[in-house]
């Protein structure tokens, strides 16, 4: 993992480019006029950023806190206990990876995590319905196209130790449809907009929502996956929790025909193959380029895997 190469002067604060905020309560419970305004706002956020915050999202703070505590506890386990979970396989139900300091961990906190997974999944499905509407489709159209009644969910906790020279996560897009990101006190997430890195500062009780590659494919490129990275400079450790939603691994993801009347931008690809391809690409300081190229290659079905590395 390498420190990304852009100088800090190119990192802008939110005051210069304000990250959109979407009120989920209005999206779900608002009257017709409120909803249609909120859906338009959501559509713009997806089109211009692929990244936004949600408030009034309905996931209880206590549940979030409990999962973060459990995660911190896991990172603090003695090495010999941690060793049991060391496993770079993405699909292992519980695994701890050191290369990106990320953990995929369920059993140890099963009660909390099960409930947390259910609540966050519900939130992402509600957002998916609203995103569908924002493209002029029926609210169930994306879910139908991706068979989301059975879906794939991944919960990742990242811990970044206090500032070493190489702490962070290189630029990447997430492979799923949507991801929710929640962080503890320390900032560090940056999102790229119009070629510039914007520091993502959360407002209280919000989640960041990150559009992933499958949303880009299914929307035929209308909504772009957000390029993001994490950079940690301070004295304090940073933790983030990422809940990612995708279709079942054997689902073939392709543009929704109604969105591709002017031409299809992407070929259909099994989600599992997409993940495998992304995971076999080297992640380094040029990861943005590598991942972007990987996406193009795979969509043209020309890619060939090279050196193995885990991606988020
Ligand atoms: O820690 C962060 O803020 C970024 C994490 C992330 O992008 C990921 O796990 O995919
Ligand atoms: Fe990510």
TrEMBL record:
Top-level taxon:
Eukaryota
Family statement drawn from the similarity comment of this UniProt entry: Belongs to the iron/ascorbate-dependent oxidoreductase family.
Keyword line? Iron, Metal-binding, Oxidoreductase
Q: Which organism is it from?
A: Lolium multiflorum (Italian ryegrass)
- Single GO molecular-function term? oxidoreductase activity
The Fe2OG dioxygenase domain extends over 147-247
Q: What is this protein called?
A: Fe2OG dioxygenase domain-containing protein
Pfam families reported for this sequence: 2OG-FeII_Oxy (PF03171), DIOX_N (PF14226)
């Amino acid at each position: 993992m390498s420190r990304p190469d852009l100088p800090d002067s190119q990192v802008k604060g939110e005051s210069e480019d304000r990250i959109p905020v979407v009120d989920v309560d209005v999206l779900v419970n608002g009257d017709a006029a409120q909803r249609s305004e909120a859906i338009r706002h959501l559509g713009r956020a997806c089109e211009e950023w692929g990244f936004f915050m949600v408030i009034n999202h309905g996931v209880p703070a206590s549940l979030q806190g409990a999962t973060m505590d459990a995660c911190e506890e896991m990172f603090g386990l003695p090495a010999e206990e941690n060793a049991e979970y060391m496993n770079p396989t993405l699909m292992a139900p519980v695994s701890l990876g050191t290369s990106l300091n990320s953990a995929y961990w369920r059993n140890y906190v099963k009660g909390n995590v099960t409930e947390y997974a259910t609540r966050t999944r519900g939130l992402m499905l509600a957002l998916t319905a609203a995103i569908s509407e924002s493209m002029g489709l029926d609210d169930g159209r994306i879910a139908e196209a991706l068979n989301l009644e059975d879906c794939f969910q991944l919960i990742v906790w990242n811990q970044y130790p206090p500032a070493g020279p190489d702490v962070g996560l290189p630029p990447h897009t997430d492979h799923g449809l949507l991801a929710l990101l929640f962080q503890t006190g320390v900032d560090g997430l940056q999102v790229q907009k119009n070629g510039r890195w914007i520091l993502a500062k959360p407002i209280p009780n919000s989640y960041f929502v990150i559009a992933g590659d499958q949303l880009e494919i299914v929307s035929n490129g209308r909504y772009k996956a957000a390029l993001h990275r994490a950079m940690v400079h301070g004295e304090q450790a940073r933790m983030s929790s990422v809940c990612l939603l995708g279709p079942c691994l054997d689902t073939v993801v392709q543009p929704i025909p109604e969105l591709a009347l002017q031409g299809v931008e992407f070929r259909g690809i099994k989600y599992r193959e997409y993940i495998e391809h992304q995971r076999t690409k080297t992640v380094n300081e040029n990861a943005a380029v590598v991942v972007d190229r990987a996406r193009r290659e795979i969509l043209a079905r020309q890619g060939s895997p090279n050196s193995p590395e885990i991606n988020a």
